[in-house]
Amino acid sequence: MPGTTTTTELWRLPRVLAATGLSRSQLYRLVAAGSFPRPVSLGGTAAKAFRSNEVQAWIDQQT
């Protein structure tokens, strides 16, 4: 529909770890292997977050 925008939440690492049950090292191994959505930059050099819809889609694929 023209003019319609959808907003996606950005989840920081602790929320992603809680939602997935993964450890930090497991998560980053999956990201490096291309098996988990890559985080997006929040504008700083180190600040990153994950798109909630991509994380939820990954979780849905695991079940």
Protein architecture, described:
With 63 residues, the chain is of the alpha+beta class. The protein is built from 3 helices and 3 strands; from the N terminus they run βααββα. The longest helix has 11 residues. The N and C termini lie far apart (31 Å).
Terminus-to-terminus distance: 31 Å
What average pLDDT do the residues reach? 92
- β-strand amount: 5-15%
What is the C-alpha radius of gyration, as a whole number of Å? 13 Å
Low-confidence segments, given as residue ranges, are none
Tally of separate helices: 3
What brief labels describe this structure?
globular; alpha+beta
Record the SSE blueprint.
Layout: E1 10-11, H1 13-20, H2 24-33, E2 40-41, E3 48-51, H3 52-62
Antiparallel strand pairs: 1-3, 2-3
Provide a compact summary of the structure.
By secondary structure, the protein is of the alpha+beta class. The protein has one domain (10-62). The chain is built from three helices and three strands.
